[in-house]
Structure formats: structure tokens, C-alpha cells
Amino acid sequence: MSLLDIHVLGAPILRQETQLVATVTDELRRLADDMFDTMYAAHGIGLAAPQVGRRERLFVVDVDESPLVFINPEIVSKDGSAKGEEGCLSIPDIYGDVERPARVTMRALDRDGNPFEVEATELLARCLQHELDHLHGRLFIDYLSILKRRSAMAKWEREKAKYASLRRTISARDLADQHNHEAL
Ligand code: K1U
Ligand code: ZN
Fold it and tell me: Which residues line ligand 1 (CB under 6 A)?
């Protein structure tokens, strides 16, 4: 198991476009495995390659104990609209309500390079759209109203002092803090 550092808001890679994956290699599968380990250790439900400093068009999600790898994902249909709370492992402790299509169908390659489609609603639909945004350099804070974004940024100005290197190392202490928070 390898835990990867998570790049936080301010790291240029979070704002860059990713590159299409030409071939699904063993190295890419190992990256996906490490991303799952990192996501679980950070208590997330999704993680995209730019968050761990990589430019490949790839993300992993696990909502309701269904781990899925998405390579070169695209939305093929969407409808409805729903507002819900989002967080981001790259902007720790900042949350906000985001309005997005309520239902999406996403097409991608799986970890073996085979095409598949997923029809998603509720939290999975939200998570898939959040992760796809990461692959195009977009973050959930981009959707907040000016006032809510300003208040989120003011909080982040205080939080970011913890991440001088613009990286977040997932440690035993992070895990302990998370468990203490959940116990409250
Ligand atoms: O991409 C990421 O930064 C992971 C992010 C995914 C996500 C969470 C919530 C809505 C959309 C996308 C997280 O896992 S943040 C932590 C989390 O588990 C969570 C936060 C708020 C609501 C539900 C879950
Ligand atoms: Zn995120």
C-alpha cells in the first residue's frame, strides 16, 4: 500500500487540463490502486489524478462500497438539477452547496481498458461530476456565489498555513483527527 501526497488549493496542477490516456498500463493500474489507498485513508469518496500530482485523465470513486476506476471519462447524458453539499480533499475543511445535474450517464474505460457506462443519481452523480471537473482544472468552489466563495476563501486563508508545501501528507494523525471528529 502506498499513500500519495494530495495537492491542495494553490498547487498549479489542480488548474491544469489532463491528458487522454492512450494505453492502460500496469503502471496506471498501480496508480489507481495507490489512489484508492490514499482516498480511503483520507476518508474521501473520490480522488482524481491531478490531486496526486498526475496529468493522466483518470479518477477513482467509491460511493456505497462500489469501487470504480474511470479512465478518459465523459458525460454522455445529463438531466435534472439538484443542490447538495460538497467537500474536496484538496481544500480540507471547506464545504459548500453546489447545484449540478441530478442524473448523469458517464462513459469511460475501466482498469482493464474496457469501455463501460454508469447511470448515476444522488451522491454518485455528484461525485462523478466533481471528479470529472478535477480532470479539467475545475474545483467546486468555482460554482459558489461570490459571497459564499469569499467566505470559503477567507477560511481557506487560515487553513492553508498547515500546507506550506501545497501538499497534504495523509498521516496517522489525520486519521485520528477524523475519527475524533466523527465521534463528536
Ligand atoms: O475529489 C475529492 O476531492 C473527493 C471528494 C469527493 C466529493 C465529496 C462530496 C461531494 C462530491 C464529491 C470527497 O471525498 S470530500 C469528503 C467526503 O467524503 C464528503 C464531503 C461532503 C459530502 C459528502 C462526502
Ligand atoms: Zn475534489
Answer: 44-48, 85-90, 126-127, 130-131, 134
